[in-house]
UniProtKB/TrEMBL annotation:
Organism phylogeny: Bacteria, Bacillati, Actinomycetota, Actinomycetes, Kitasatosporales
Top-level enzyme category: transferase
Domain Histidine kinase: 20-105
Keywords: Kinase, Transferase, Two-component regulatory system
Catalytic reactions of this protein: ATP + protein L-histidine = ADP + protein N-phospho-L-histidine
Protein name: histidine kinase
Superkingdom in the source lineage: Bacteria
Xref: CDD domains: HATPase_UhpB-NarQ-NarX-like
């Protein structure tokens, strides 16, 4: 796992969505990729939080699976936040899930969290 950018608090809905996207992508790696490792990158940008999970496993021949709704759920989460999701096989092999979640101009941290 790698984090880049200035780590800072993000709104709870964005934080939870990023967590769930990574969780589902890692579940898919375990179930479908046939490998033991992958790369997770969290990038704190000025206007968005970027989440990427990449593996070099078997990949997929098409988006989605007949056995679950993981990619559909990721798309719905990202859509509710006006973000963007890109998920699919990589040309060099493996699979990539990348989400961009817009961040508000400023995030206030609750007093009890300080």
């Amino acid at each position: 796992m790698r984090c880049t950018g200035e780590q800072r608090p993000v709104p709870a809905d964005i934080d939870l969505s990023a967590y769930r996207i990574v969780q589902e992508a890692l579940t898919n790696v375990v179930r479908h990729a046939g490998i033991e490792r992958c790369r997770v990158t969290i990038d704190y940008r000025d206007e968005e939080l970027s989440v990427e999970v990449v593996d070099n496993g078997r990949g997929a021949t098409e988006e989605g699976s007949a056995h679950g709704f993981g990619l559909i759920g990721m798309r719905e989460r990202v859509g509710l936040l006006d973000g963007h999701l890109n998920a699919g096989p990589r040309p060099e092999g493996g699979f990539r899930v990348a989400a961009r979640l817009p961040l508000p101009a400023s995030v206030e941290v609750p007093v009890e969290a300080r």
